[in-house]
Amino acid sequence: MAKMSIVDAVKSGRILISDGAWGTFLQAKGLQPGECPELWCIERPEDVLDIAKSYIDAGSDMIETNSFGGSRFKLEHYGLADRAVELNRAAARISRRAAGPERWVIASIGPTGKMLLLGDVSEQELYDGFKEQATALADGGADAICVETMSALDEAALAVRAARENTDCEVICTFTLERNQQGSYRSMMGVSPVEAARAALDAGAHIIGTNCGNGLKRMVDIVKEMKPIAGDVPILVHANAGLPQNIGGKDVFPDTPADMAALVPEIIEAGAQIIGGCCGTTPAHIRAIKQAVFA
Where in the sequence is the domain holding 15, given as residue range(s)? Predict the structure, then answer.
């Protein structure tokens, strides 16, 4: 029997468990500053596979891909723009291998670093770059495209549209929102949770949400703002393991697996139906979150 869609799984009443951090995991495996993470999909595929399998073994229902910076705009910094298709396809194939037939691969697409507002790039160029990345990820076996860590409405909308119009994948769109001095949550470009949710839905996202920038405690407030806009559209949260603290010149994320697990009932009550981790989270965090969901 064919695997149901993520949206259908949520609508059936399930709370789904996503995966945790990839960047910090790659660094723990030896990724050096200035090194291209996506190139590991070709040069060190077993290390990338090990990360994906670690989250599957911890109980994730879905896993991302090592493709966050896989757009040709990001890859050009490493002289790898012409390998965008190869690297993204490889990233999806690795996660597909780890996920097997029963779990979902939600392929990661991050910001390009280009700003339409400043004329860095045209809308068509940006759309074409996202199209290239999304179609390669779909070719590699992705079930969904996860447009994540967005801060600008126009870039997020173009990424969602490119994935919707050129693949058969479900499309997720998440924004990174941080609390300002007034106590409100805004993206780096001044976007509110309500504006982020509305823009993602208008562009055609099947699933919306928020990632990075906050621990699970603050994500509760963001989800509460998004929920009235989302309606019956699933909300995904990928929270950091707390807010980073600089200790000895190194960012340390303080929230333990138990800390995050304790907040699971609150984030579900707020309206989140897909819960996972971002910076600083590990398979242990994901295992604890899953245990809390099914406690």
Answer: 6-293
